[in-house]
Amino acid sequence: MLTIHHLGVSQSERIVWLCEELGVPYALKLYVRDPVTRAAPAEYRAIHPAGTAPVITDGDLTLSESGAIIEYIIAKYGEGRMARAPDHPEFASYLFWLHYANGSLMPAIMSDRMAAAARPAGAPIPAIPTRSERGLAMVEARLGQAPYFAGDELTAADVIMLFPLRPSRLFEPRDLTPYPNLRAWLRRISERPAYQRAMGQAEPGQPIALV
Prior knowledge:
The chain is an alpha+beta fold. The chain has helices spanning 13-22, 42-45, 66-76, 91-118, 131-145, 156-165, 180-190, 193-202, and strands at residues 2-7, 27-31, 55-58, 61-64. It has two domains: 2-82 and 196-202, 3-Layer(aba) Sandwich (Glutaredoxin), CATH 3.40.30.10; 91-192, Glutathione S-transferase Yfyf (Class Pi), Chain A, domain 2.
């Protein structure tokens, strides 16, 4: 059986949500971060050589990386649902956002946070937009064109984009007031029964509302 190894407060919550949306049976194994360092426990890091979340096991297969796991589950168990076929008018948009989430947006957010943390107290904030701010501007523009990243329906592009866009539980939350389209998208996500079920299992006790 497909097993999702979920590290608390991590990107692996998106895999639980994907399976709930698709109605794919899975077993969920929860792992708790170290309360002081917030690092994954040794037993989690030992599952896959990458040592990062998410990770799934499926029979003899052990697979890491969000994008790879999402494509694997959709292809093997989802019968292509929640993806866009090559002949779909939103196919290119689907591919872009599916890969942009972890390929560009997450690194931009992390590098901006590290740069801000390293800035001396009282140092001026650069006037030019940061990489993550440029990314959020792109997100806001896209969600002004369509309710979801690949058009009128939820796809895996939305599933993978949520983690970098949701209010952070590991860092100081970003003010999303300037992004009404993004906030509306977050409300739509939080109202989905599959998302509510996923978070109830993966992050029991955490608020479901995203805005």
